[in-house]
Design brief:
By secondary structure, the protein is α/β, with parallel strands linked by helices. It contains 13 helices and 14 strands. The strands form three sheets. It has a seven-stranded mixed beta sheet, sandwiched between helices. Strand 1, helix 1 and strand 2 form a beta-alpha-beta unit. The longest helix is centred in the C-terminal third of the chain and has 17 residues. The protein is globular and about 70 Å long. The protein starts with a strand and ends with a helix.
Length: about 350
Amino acid sequence: MGKIKLAVVGDTSYARRLTECIRKNAPEYLEVLGCQCVQDLADFLIKMQPDILLCEREAAAGGRLVNYIVRIWLTDTIHGEQGQACGQDGGIAQTQIRQDPEIFRYQRGSEILRQVFQIYEKHSKKNLVCRCNNADMEMDAFYAPGGNELLLPYSISYASICGEEAKTLYLNLSEFSGMASFFGEKAGKNLSDLIYAIRQKKDRFLISLQSVLHHTEQFDYILPPENPEDLYEIQEEDLASLLKMLQEQTEYTQIVWGCGTFNQAVEQVMECCRKVYCVVKESSFGKYRKIEFEGFLKKEWKRRIQEKVVFISTQTGSGVFVPGMDILAQLQSGEFAEQVRKLTQEEQGESG
């Protein structure tokens, strides 16, 4: 799971001490960075991609920030509840209109860290709960640049293999993914119904989940929305609530996403996945799409995804499936499964 990155920006000895103090008090899901060369802040932001900047006033922390970075200033002045600067006698010295929140610098490092988290939770634009401190789920995503009919079998085969070792849930964010026809589901509730239920009554999550959940021997799954427009209406808070409740109220330890459309929801999911497996065809058009996608990922604020991407070249032809046999069984034991098992073994070898 991706960690939250906190960068302390400042070139003073205080900034260096605060960085070390916060690092000692930081939970395992927080990565603490120090940026003492403030003149190189722009390059630092591009390379490290922090979620939070804790800046000294003297630091050159200006410039363009993307909307997911929360900037917090360290100040010498204690502020009242209404955001007004207060003097030592408690009276109002002057009214300040601040775009960025502030924290009084002369406090214990642990208290500063507590306030940082409070501000981040309130102001963050990328507060997916898959980064929370009690998270024990792993997430991987499958995506096919430009569309690929092999996306569904590859991702399902991967979910089947994951399900041999962990309790796995398969979720699909694709337009007309083919899942309903593949699994033979004629009618029933889908991901849209679950999202709607979460918005209405979060306290009945498990009941809502059971109404949309389907099962195979290896993994559970939820059908994607029937209406592709629903995919574009899924909000950040919807995903946050879904992942939070899956973590807290279920026993799933692995989530596999099939992502057929690169929209806001998919981008948020990819940023918090362990790996993003991109299925590409060994053809001229497949190569063109791969080149364009790689160029897209090189943009400043897409590098969070770029470092997670693993390209998969499809080696199988249409004749890989035997007519008349159960397709799911073939995905779990056929040529697709052999490729995916090799993929997972290589990943395990790299991590080991």
